[in-house]
Amino acid sequence: MNRRSVSRTTSFDVAVVGAGVVGAATALALAREGLRVVLVEGREPPSWDAATPDLRVYAFAPDNAALLDRLGVWSAIESARSQPYRCMRVWDAAGGGELAFDADRLGRLELGWIVENALLVDRLWKALPAAGVTILCPDRVQEFSQDDSGASVGLESGTRLRARLVVAADGAESQLRQLARIDAPTRDYGQRGLVAFVEHERPHQSTCWQRFLPTGPLAFLPFTPAAEGRHRSSIVWTLPETEAERMAALDDSAFLGELDRAFDGPLGPLLAVSRRAAFPLRRQLASTQRQGRLVLVGDAAHVVHPLAGQGVNLGLRDVAALQQALGADGGVGDPGAPARLQRWARARKSESAVAAGTFEALNAAFSNDLLAPTLLRGHLLGLAGRMSMLTRALWRRAAGL
After folding, report:
1. What per-residue confidence (pLDDT) applies to 8?
2. Coiled-coil regions in this chain (predicted)?
3. What CATH number matches the domain at 9-49+118-186+283-364, 3.40.190.10, 2.170.190.11, 3.50.50.60, 3.40.50.1110?
4. What CATH number is given for 64-114+189-281 in this structure?
5. In 3-state terms, what secondary structure has residue 209?
């Protein structure tokens, strides 16, 4: 990939640190507004490999597909590999009713798409040079300071960037957030999310399935067929840490047996499983998403429970709102001016706090075997499922519409 050379000290309108999905989308979105953007990343991502699906997948919402379409990359993602889903079914292992979302009833062709992280990053990176984004990779942030007129970012290479706005998109352990001394209180859930691809006998019916168990939710997300057309789904299984470690250590046959019993058969016998991985689950919310000329987006600002698949969707909504705030006057003026950023920061922090609290409450209510919640929760899901206006409102909230 071509990279523009920069002098030891170079000025830009915006410096974005971190080039995952959210960081790369931020750089592309702000460059589309006519701003001079530099993107700093410690490691160039590997090219997407169709033969090796990325275990990290997202339930991609319609508003964020529309964002990437406006940025000119969604068609390249969708044509490479994306799995539309048209239904969602949620139920509790203890019984009761079911909460279901159906595209036909909601007047949609699909509710969303299942997309791999590696594919999203790959297509976003490929679009950056043509948009005029300067890429500094590999390089890392070592110093950060700011004043009324701009901010300075010192890199490991010795390069010093001067920018009117700096965007921290460098993940949950954000170096920029730490250098700016922004607190990010964390609550460890004592759980891990175990992920894998599973092949099964019956078609997935373009449906996302989620079963609540006392140990945590188990989700099957529809995915494109495996070799020879075998039906395949991506799983995300929330488990207590010790149980996740035990499951990860099982051989394939034993693991599939445990998974089959936990899921209880909507897709028929489970036939094969890919490699597995597990990651710790926690809530982490930065105390603010703006400090002077620094703003935080994505996991640098908020980490939430994955049970509703909203992590990357929240991050991209940060990007869409920031693009709107900075492009309101055609991209002229100072992108780091407080008047542009204050309202954005308040609104984004409020939405992420509500989302984190909601997902945490759902996880606490459904991930236990206490008598009262066990007797009530399945029936409450069924009641919600029978209330069409509530179902529509819940889906529109999750879809960002």
Report:
1. 58
2. none
3. 3.50.50.60
4. 3.30.9.10
5. strand
Nearest Cα residue to 168 out of 297, 293, 291, 44:
297
pTM check: above 0.85: yes
Whole-angstrom distance, CA of residue 82 vs CA of residue 222: 10
Residue 242: phi and psi, rounded to 5, are -65, -35
Peptide bond into 203 cis (omega under 30): no
Give, in order, the Cα–Cα distances in Å from 174 to each of 29, 37, 204, 249, 351: 21, 20, 38, 31, 20
- For residue 253, the tally of other CB atoms under 10 A from its CB is 8
Of 321, 327, 325, 323, give the one whose Cα is nearest residue 339.
Answer: 325
Query: What band does 367 get if pLDDT is binned at 50, 70 and 90?
Result: low
Which residue bears the tokens 């909203």?
Answer: 310
Confidence of residue 3 (pLDDT cuts 50, 70, 90): very low
Calculate ∠ Cα 313-207-364, nearest 5°: 60
pLDDT single digits (tens) 385-397: 444 554 555 545 5
**How far, CA to CA in Å, does 73 sit from each of 92, 115, 199?**
38, 13, 30
